[in-house]
Every structure is written in C-alpha cells, then in structure tokens.
C-alpha cells in the first residue's frame, strides 16, 4: 500500500526507545524525513545510527526534556530549519509516577501535568503555523488504554491522558478546515521498560514478585500476550497516511481486547 507520506517530515517525541522508537522506524521505512528527541543523548545517538544504517535515511536527533518549554521550542525550530517544516507530529511521552491519591504530592502532580498534557499543548502550538501554511498536517497523540478504562494505581496517567483526549477531540474540530487531522492511539499493556517499571512498583505494594505481576497482567488480555511496540506503531503510521485522511477526532485503543467497554 502506498501511504502517500514519502518525503513528509515527521517528529516523534520521546522516541529513543519503546513505542516512540518503533514509530520512528516505521516512518523511516516509508522514506520520511524523521526527527527524534528524548532526554538521553546516548540513546538518541544510538537509535539514530541504527535506523540510519538500516534504512539509508538520515535520522535527525535532538535532546529535549518534555517538561522544559524552551527545549520544546528549540526542538521544533531545529527540525523545521533542517527539513523546512513538520508535517506529522507524534506526541509521545513516558508515563508519570505511579501511585494512589494519598501518595502523590503536589510536585508529582505538577510534573505529570507538564510531562503528559502541557508537552502536547506546547508541541502543537509550535508546529501549527507551518501545518496551516501547507494546508496539511497530522497530529497523533499516544495516550493509554487508561483513558477508556482507568488503571487503579495510575492516577496521574488516568487524569492527564484523559485531558489529552479532550484536547485532541476539540482540536480535531477546530483544525479540520486546515486539512489537519488529530487522532489519539491508546495502547494497552506493551512490552516496554514502562511495563517492567510498573510491575516493580506494584511488587513493592503487594509483596509479589514483578514476574508474577506481569504474568497476571497478561492474563487480563484476551489475546493472551502483551503488544509489541511495532504493533502500536503500525496504527500510528496508518493514521499519518493519506489513506486515513477522513479519520479525525478518534481514539483508537490497541490493547488485545483488554478494554471491556462497548464504545
């Protein structure tokens, strides 16, 4: 299938590993101009070298702390200077601190707000002028199945990722006249470092081993396994394509059947 995005410029945030890296790789395979960012210079350089060698396609990388507005502004400016504008924005971030309500102080609330919700606002604000000028754009926000089915000890994620969905739906209505689509992807349990981190944190509360916790999490999934990052990335790639030009304002969960609701 010709996705119609060859030579489009894509910025994937928090993309030196995990789902972000898998998305960057698929865009590289489609011969897009790919820019990646994260807080780790070492991981970024390693990922860029790996993908550049594999696809014979230069991967532009830049260090960016998603909680730092100056970093976000600098990232977008550098990518636009390099490639002449961003056509596709994939907003991804790590998960905020796990914990129940009484365990979360105001510092953690503020950090999660900046990391999960305000980073999306800032990146969208920065890329919109060029998207509007081109009368074409794709904004894809990676959230979590928690926006459909809250996860008990992930209060910050439940709260702020739901906010991203509200933002996305509102933006989709406002930006449609500029031929800019806005959609969200809500992954379920996916084989990344985040799953290990959540299992270790839960183990401290329950006294179980993290291996047991991961096994029990997997039992909840009708397909009987966790997702591979590239399976989430495939949906992201499709939403960025010309074939998805009539899809906007949607949240698509990719969770192996984990979500139990009807809608």
CATH class: Alpha Beta
Radius of gyration equals: 18 Å
Q: How many separate domains?
A: 1
Per DSSP E runs of 2 or more residues, the count of β-strands stands at: 7
General shape: globular
Order of helices and strands: EHEHEHEHEHEHHHE
* Helix/strand structural class: alpha/beta
Number of helices: 8
Strand arrangement, largest sheet?
3-2-1-4-5-6-7
Distance between the termini: 29 Å
User: What's the story with the biggest beta sheet?
Assistant: 7 strands, parallel
Could you please say which CATH topology applies here?
A: Rossmann fold
CATH hierarchy: architecture: 3-Layer(aba) Sandwich
Low-confidence runs of at least 5 consecutive residues? none
**Assembly annotation:** single chain
Mean pLDDT: 95
CATH superfamily: NAD(P)-binding Rossmann-like Domain
Brief summary:
The protein is an alpha/beta fold and 263 residues long. It is built from eight helices and seven strands. It has a single domain (9-189, 228-254), classed as Rossmann fold.
